[in-house]
Amino acid sequence: MVDMISPLGVLWVNAIRMTVIPLIVASLIVATAGTDARAVGRLGARAFAVFIGLLALLAVMATLVAPLLFDGLTIDAVAAESIRAGTEARDQPALPSFGDWLTEVVPINPIRAAADGAMLPLVVFSLAFGIALSRLSSSRREPVIGFFSAVSDAMLLLVRGILIVAPIGIFALALPLAVRLGTGVVGAVGFYLAAHSGLLLLATLALYVIVALFSRVSVRQFARAALAPQLVAVTTRSSMAALPANVVAAERVLGLPRRLVSFALPFAVSVFRLNQPISWLAMALFAAKLYGVELDLTSIITLAVSSVLLSFSVPGIPSGSLFIVAPFFAAHGIPAESIGVLIAVDLVPDVFKTLCNVTGHLTAVTLLPDTEMRGAASAAGLDN
Hints:
The chain is mainly α. Helix content is 79%, strand content 0%. It has a single domain, classed as Orthogonal Bundle (Proton glutamate symport protein). The longest helix has 34 residues, at 37-70. It is globular and about 75 Å long. Residues 86-90, 181-185 and 370-384 have low confidence and may be disordered.
């Protein structure tokens, strides 16, 4: 039964993923082709400031709440040894240095970047192409803009069609996951999974409050817009897969200008991982309990600050943040082998990480200063 249903979920995810690259490339080119490069730079700076602000807020929340929550966890020596022995050691993959990461931001081959799903290099290429296109004469520029505008519109129509059959795809993805988890999530591991996932869910709910306080969008409207991308997020565990649904939600439900959405959402998916402050502290506190390490307030604050600063450098590999955090754990006395344990039990928290990140992407776009956005739009042609 499960083996028969599971391929339907894979097909649905593949159908969503096939729209991501053409939608983002076409939308970014159209968004920047008729726009002053300085306006794009100002919009990028404002978006980055919103990212930092949201990360800092969640880092403060995690610092205040997570230690209190994990104070209730006690792991006896026998159970701790059993958990450590029951997970395989994981080799750390070769991670790029900062210099490697920086040079790869500009793709040697944009077609290869698209095939690899390397979002940030693809965003850089699309922006550069759009800005170059804006420097051409109108007679040469308009046909190209018309082509990419038609591609963007067609992809949005395709996404809306794919979302119509979302209940079938979600069920086909959720059933195998439920069977795989079964009743084995118990004890100390169960506490960690519940605590980590609960903190991420709390952070996601906090975003609704932030939207209500700092934007002109009502909570009901935001919740209606976020629902479809959130469903894609929790079933696929992929922010990129949820990106087309987020684009449709931002434009059709929230009524944000397409040219703003086309830039800000791909930028967010490329670099903005809002779950990092929550996840770093939850993982550190659990690993410390597991290995009998005491984390003082200074260590907790240091990890929280580091999570904000390094969240933009997390590699796009499965459990990439766990490999980034390993040396920071070691600096605070948490053995590096704890990463193997955390990877082994990362399936459930990963669902809530993606949920938090995808909701955070939509929140960030919603929070872009309304008056500044409209001022930039009227000055640089960002309105529809």
